[in-house]
Amino acid sequence: MVRDFDIAKEEDIGYYIGFITASFALSQLLTGIHWGILSDRIGRRPVILCGMIGTIISITLFGLSKSYIWALLSRSLCGLLNGNVGVLKSMVAELTLSAPPDQRTRAFSLLPLMYGLGCIIGPLLGGFLSNPVTTYPALFGNLGSLTDFLLIYPYFLPCFISASICGVGFIFGVLFLEETLGGVQLQEKKQQQEERQRLLDQTDEDGYNTFDQGNNEEDPSIKKIDPPPTLKEALTPTVWAISISYAIYAYQVVYYDELFPIWTASKRSFGGLGFASNEIGTALAISGCTTLVTQIFILPAMVRRFGLVRLYRSTLFILIFVYLSHGLVRLLYDVPDWEGHTDTKYWVWVGLFIVLMMKTMCQTIGFTSCTLLINNCAPLRSLGAINGFSQCCASLMRALGPATCGILWSQSISATWLPLSVRAYINWIFLSGIAVATFYTSQRLDASKYETVQADEVVDYADDDSRCSDETVARRV
């Protein structure tokens, strides 16, 4: 799309792609924590539904882009109107308060599992449905005004399909999504208890009371619902430590996500692989399939075997060398295939599959582990605020990641005074350095402080509520 805007040379396109991607994360930085705090007060369900509406609108507008500024603004709008990532994490945490650790892991793994499914569908939609009139003239070439529309807006069709999928999700949310916010549930319980007390008082006034008339103190079973703790109170040193680690980890992940399509699409003379858009879509779909397999079959067993903190550290360490391995894939063009021919993509695809599989497994395990660690150490009544805060930290890095990736890529391939064998590795060496920094932050985590605390809060509340009810019955009989 950016290339079709014809606003820059081939070697400078990375700048503009990076700014579009960064605009989404920067917008989330401005609003993510506010969406989280709002969900702590009014509930998760309305915030999620509002975010889906914002996504539908912004994706549709993005497909109507005819200029770089329009594309930039529509992506920014998507970030402003959608804080669902942090809110969904809070929702899953509340649904698994008393679940065993392995079941809690499986529940949280559904988030990147769905992301992996999106990584399969999304690239395929973008790769195969962009420029549909040119790509499939027999299907879209004779549709009258629709053909003219798709010629004017060649990227509208994949965006429209994506918005439609989100629309289906919105309908399912309206019909079937239930509220999980503990504060809302406690408030409903309080109202029921107040209604019961009102009926008892009315019975007293009608002269049918058989209870002790001299004891009129407030019923302790009617518990006052305090507002959630402030963000400052919720941000304990334990939360800060894992949030910082999560932010740097998000930086390396988004840097890779930005670098991969630029690297694979760039010409070999620029240090890339020279792939077409449909080949890039296929590679990303392979990555998505690996995510699905990892979440379903690998992650729960590894969490039981190693524990969250140890597993998080291990995957970060492996990623250091996985990123460095990516830079070697382009050399596989020089390896003869089975027929003795060089400059073919046979071994390139083999090498790319291996590094993609390793990268996806490590990133998937690391992401889920870090998400669990954040929710394990967050107070129950501040889940939305804490997840919103961690999402804002990640959004800041996700805003910096694409921009720095685009700048570093453009600068590296423009530095013709360096040999190509050096320029092609600059980005991968830099990314490995970020992985080293992320691994260092994981070494600062105290594993004993990241056991789940919300279940204890629920048990304490249930015990208090039961004790108060027993005292009330004993006092009234």
From TrEMBL:
A single GO cellular-component term from the record reads: membrane
Where is there biased composition of kind Basic and acidic residues?
A: 192-201
UniProt KW keywords: Membrane, Transmembrane, Transmembrane helix, Transport
**Region of interest (Disordered), ranges:** 192-229
Pfam assignment, any one = MFS_1
Transmembrane stretches in the record are: 13-35, 47-64, 108-130, 150-177, 234-254, 280-299, 311-329, 349-374
Q: Which residues form the Major facilitator superfamily (MFS) profile domain?
A: 1-445
Where does the record say this protein resides?
Answer: Membrane
Coiled-coil segments: none
> InterPro entries annotated for this entry?
MFS, MFS_dom, MFS_trans_sf
> Gene3D superfamilies of this UniProt entry?
MFS general substrate transporter like domains
This protein's record includes keyword Heme: no
Q: How does it sit in the membrane?
A: Multi-pass membrane protein
What would be an example GO MF term here?
transmembrane transporter activity
The identity of this protein, by name, is Major facilitator superfamily (MFS) profile domain-containing protein
**To which species is this protein native?**
Absidia glauca
